[in-house]
Amino acid sequence: MDYGMMFQEENESIMERFELSMERIGQIILEETVSQPYRDYFVRTASFIQMMGEYLRFIESGSQREVDIEVLKEWNQKLYEDILPGHYEKSYADPAYAAAMLGEGYGRLFSYLYKEIRGDIVFVHEKRIKDITILNETFVELYNMFEEEVPEVSAVKEVLYWFVSDYTDHTVSYRVREGLDPSLSFATDIINNYDLNDLRYLYYFGEYISDSELKTAEFLNNLPEKTVRLMADTYTEGYCRGFEVMRRDLKKKGAVQIRYELGFERMVKYAMENFKSLGLKIILCRAAVWTVNTNAGRKAGYYSTSPNRQYEYDHRYDEAIYLNKAFKDRKSAVLKVAYETYKELSAAYAGPAVMETFGKEGFEPVNKPDANRLDLKQEKLAVEMSNESSRILKQYVRGDETSFTIIAFPVPEIGEDFEKIFEETIAINTLDYEKYKGIQQSIIDALDEAAYVEIRGKGENRTKLTVALHPIKDKDRETNFENCVADVNIPLGEVFTSPKLAGTEGTLAVSTVYIGEFQFKNLVMTFENGMIKDYGCDNFENPEEGKALIKQMILKNHDTLPMGEFAIGTNTTAYAMAREFGILDKLPILIVEKMGPHFAVGDTCYSWAEDSPVYNFDGKEIIARDNEISILRKEDVSKAYFSCHTDITIPYAELDTIEAIRPDGRRISIIENGRFSLKGTEELNIPLCDA
């Protein structure tokens, strides 16, 4: 079915409401029945909605496909200029400006509403008239309240609460569907049906299009077909290999979800062809638009360069407006019904194939007191809601039946060496699988002799950690560490385990690390019996602001997390490339985790699939799939998982030693003075000679 036809019946049924709401909003611009300063908010927001109505007519007339690219650029600028740096500070999208103009209480609420209304940009492109209409009607309802007299802040908040709660049947259910249903083909139709050499296609997605997307697409279009196919083949082969390594049957699955940043459509198109040859349909859904479906610091779907990262940061906790226990229960109930409705699609879902990018400048957020924030009670509710959502998801999308893959490429913002770095990244993503498999097995054999591992930092790096390992009963059949080459995590290069929590303790420190969009500076964490005891960073002058950022972005609002993974990265080639081009601080954790020892806080690497046996290439079963927290699933699943897993890496330059300590006290050196010292690993030091 044509995508445009899918919503025809729904759109026809709501069209009268839509037209009435648009007519009323047009009148608001001309009226003076609401007093200042509130009238300014309503008039400016109504003007934006009117512009979206004009753009909808532009699309429906077919003009979007006919005009020159310069016209599309002008429209894209008009749609997003209100939140671009230089304009944002005078926009009601900025909670600080909204509070200054309307007062703190109204400001937070109306800034949130305007942010939701800006979702019209997406809804217009996807012809989701119902989404536009329910926003229009809520906007008009609040306007009518202010016509009579200025209502209490609590009355405005109540309207917004019931708006969000009542429409979760629509907003949350659709989000579940679009993540599972290949027939929602808006983005796949663009990639398949339009000439990717004609960069006008980028503007059809409805995302902000910066120079980055245009330059990336142009760059890929100029690459030899052999090169782009190699990129796509590496990506899809890694996905398939993940199923093979985990001994899961890909033939039982019917669809794969591709997640990527706009500009890489040429590679994505080849990847789609590869997946289709495997019998998999393609799911391409954009990153969540409605606040009720978003996750602070994380985008799942396709997306573009952020027009303003401060804007996204300011609105990361808008759920504070409506989050209470009743809403948490309401959302969980809707999720359950939605997954039950789409249970056949859920069963066919094979997992995500993710493409990340790197190279953007570090983002240093400003904490604005006028932005919405969760109180302590809401933080706990948010954690509970996340855990409940994960449990519902795993009931219908079983972790022991799916897999994934992740790969990363640079974007032009990385600098004048972009093309060279891109070429080097392709080389890193296609390193010799068999060679690393053998080298890493040497490391695993040594680590399997140990009761625990000691890691020490060099110079100013304060790392001093002891990581306890699970006892191995049968050395001929069992191992603690997985030999990870280029399958689910590309590039290759690590051995990893889920450590014992008891006996795991000490300090983890790193000078800089990217976690999502945020670059943490001088991040420090201390552990006691495997659990985070304290933490801090130097991102802000006020240490408490740094702790708050860590709690939000790394601990995901939990009071503490266990060390869910300990790994040793072996990709010294990637490290040498990063040092050569001076981009160590711009690489994603996907690559950085292969460039030294790394430690993940949160769930283990095997969460929700601990009972499924996993084997290395030598036939040994990896027994370290549980820890003292995850095993609680056998008694109370709500106590076993945290719905997060965040990696933190110590680069070789900040590393002194890694030693495996046998039960008898004998030490086996794995790394000494930041270089591999174990027999059989000597080749890993070659790239480090020039680094």
Description:
With 691 residues, the protein is an alpha+beta fold. Helix content is 42%, strand content 17%. It contains 23 helices and 20 strands. The strands form four sheets. The chain has an eight-stranded antiparallel sheet, with helices on one face. It is globular, with a radius of gyration of 26 Å. The mean pLDDT is 94.
Topology:
Layout: H1 3-6, H2 8-28, H3 38-60, H4 69-80, H5 95-102, H6 104-117, H7 120-125, H8 129-148, H9 153-166, H10 168-178, H11 186-193, H12 211-222, H13 225-245, E1 255-261, H14 265-277, E2 281-283, E3 302-303, H15 309-314, H16 325-341, H17 343-348, E4 349-358, H18 376-396, E5 405-410, H19 418-429, H20 433-447, E6 452-457, E7 464-468, E8 478-479, E9 482-484, E10 494-497, E11 500-515, E12 518-528, E13 531-536, H21 543-553, E14 563-569, H22 572-581, H23 589-592, E15 597-602, E16 621-622, E17 645-649, E18 655-661, E19 667-672, E20 675-676
Parallel strand pairs: 1-2, 1-3, 1-4, 4-5, 8-16
Antiparallel strand pairs: 6-7, 6-18, 7-11, 9-10, 10-14, 11-12, 12-13, 14-15, 15-17, 18-19, 19-20
Helix pairs in contact: 2-3, 2-8, 5-6, 6-9, 8-9, 10-16, 13-14, 16-18, 19-22
